[in-house]
Design brief:
two-stranded antiparallel ribbon; about 65% helix
Length: about 475
């Protein structure tokens, strides 16, 4: 009998037979000593029965139908949207497209981030990293297929609503056009808080509870708390556009073409820099709370990192409140300096603390990159790429923190997408590093094959929990 995996998702009070679920004619036992699938397959499945069943399940036989239907739907939306844009008066076309971009771009980027998170989960489920234990997830947590399903539905409904928005406006039905973003936002909000056991209620409420905890860090900080807050820092521009969209809906400014109404939802609104800074404020206070709980000075240094983003955000917002000469001669140089400081500090922290530079550097010094069997990636070029691309994208992220650089919506979309790709890449190494720390804890029972190869040298900060 092989060594059992000590996972909370495999513990049952009594044995039970699972035959039909696995499509097997032989009885399969699930309890603390037996598994429904071999250990290798189970580790690939994320160390939960639900993931295991997902891993061994047969592929969806309808994919040959769904793929062409999805492409046909995309072609129809593109055709109707382009015809509608051509019908709009040339003087109003750019302004109206900018407004449509404001409503639908943040939702599309949210769907993109959900899709990338599904890819993260899929990679973790194929490795020895037990992400469910790291995030303290129960056995009902979503598989990568379910996450991709949610992202796919968002990618279908958002362009459909945008196409209807363009169509109705171009045909003079402004009232129907106004309803499209309002209905979409309202439905998504209702689905998120819907109290009944549909649409993955346990996962939705886990997300809402985590949002509440990061907004008000009154309890000890968990890995999921600061992890979600870090992801939100990469989506600060998305949150800012969401705020502007909701503001325009509340004030009845949908489909009227006025994008810069001063003091309401326009560039001079003080709410915009506050929303941009919100995720960083959450992380700042999380670090202070963690310092209170642990007394580790590294928490204060981490808080300082997030504090360096505040000058970038608020100096940029000053452009709309000072004369042009004052901005060019005084505030713009200060904004550039604060941007450099924030980018360099954040890059340093990513590599040395979030990814643990000692683990990283030992791979470079090692003649055999496979000496650490628990590493996600055994090839050196992956880590070279991660560090180099992270440096470049950290610098470009300054663009997203700056409110006065948001008028070219194509550039904004590109930079925001690149930042999400940087965060997507960051997640792999951050979760991997957390699993290494958990493997070194003496009170955590982990299968022998998952315990990392330990050399005599000590990992940088391995005795600490730097978040």
């Amino acid at each position: 009998m092989s060594t059992p995996v000590n996972s909370p998702h495999l513990r049952h009070s009594s044995s039970r037979t699972a035959v039909s679920e696995l499509g097997s004619t032989e009885p399969v036992i699930l309890d603390e000593s037996f598994r429904a699938v071999p250990e290798a397959d189970l580790m690939k499945a994320g160390s939960s029965p639900k993931q295991a069943l997902s891993a061994v399940a047969s592929p969806d036989p309808l994919w040959r139908i769904k793929g062409p239907l999805f492409l046909l739907w995309g072609f129809i939306c593109l055709k109707i949207g382009m015809d509608s844009v051509v019908r709009i008066d040339a003087k109003l076309r750019y302004e109206f497209l900018h407004e449509a971009f404001l409503y639908y771009n943040p939702l599309f980027l949210m769907a993109m981030m959900i899709w990338l998170w599904g890819v993260n989960i899929w990679v973790f489920s194929q490795s020895s990293v037990n992400y469910s234990k790291i995030f303290d997830l129960d056995h009902n947590h979503l598989t990568q297929r379910e996450i991709w399903k949610c992202a796919t539905w968002m990618m279908i409904t958002v362009p459909t609503s945008m196409t209807a928005f363009l169509y109705f406006y171009s045909h003079g039905e402004s009232d129907l056009a106004k309803c499209q973003p309002v209905i979409l936002y309202s439905v998504l909000a209702l689905i998120l808080v819907f109290p009944y056991d549909v649409f993955y209620v346990s996962s939705r409420y886990f997300f809402i509870r985590t949002l509440w905890r990061l907004t008000f860090p009154l309890q000890p900080i968990t890995f999921a708390d600061f992890f979600l807050a870090d992801v939100l820092t990469s989506m600060s521009k998305v949150l800012s556009d969401l705020e502007r969209s909701v503001c325009r809906m509340v004030n009845g400014q949908v489909a009227i073409g006025a994008l810069d109404l001063d003091g309401v939802c326009g560039s001079r609104s003080f709410v915009i820099p506050c929303v941009l800074a919100f995720p960083y404020v959450c992380r700042f206070f999380q670090c202070l709370r963690q310092y209170k709980d642990t007394g580790e000075k590294s928490c204060l240094l981490n808080a300082l990192k997030y504090a360096t983003s505040f000058p970038v955000i608020f100096l940029s917002a000053l452009k709309y409140h000072v004369v042009p000469e004052m901005w060019t001669n005084v505030y713009r140089p200060l904004w550039l300096l604060s941007s450099v400081v924030n980018s360099c500090y954040s890059f340093y922290w990513d590599v040395t603390r979030d990814w643990d530079l000692s683990v990283f550097s030992r791979i470079f010094r090692s003649k055999n990159p496979h000496l650490r069997p628990n590493m996600l990636y055994g090839r050196r070029w992956v880590y070279y790429w991660a560090v180099g691309s992270n440096l470049v994208l950290r610098c470009s992220w300054t663009y997203k923190l700056s409110a006065h650089l948001r008028h070219n919506h194509l550039t904004v979309f590109t930079i925001t997408s690149l930042e999400m790709m940087r965060r997507f890449q960051w997640i792999f190494f951050r979760v991997e590093n957390e699993w290494n720390k958990m493997a070194l804890k003496p009170n955590l029972q982990i299968p022998i094959k998952e315990i990392p190869y330990l050399e005599n040298e000590k990992l940088l900060g391995s005795e600490q929990h730097n978040v």
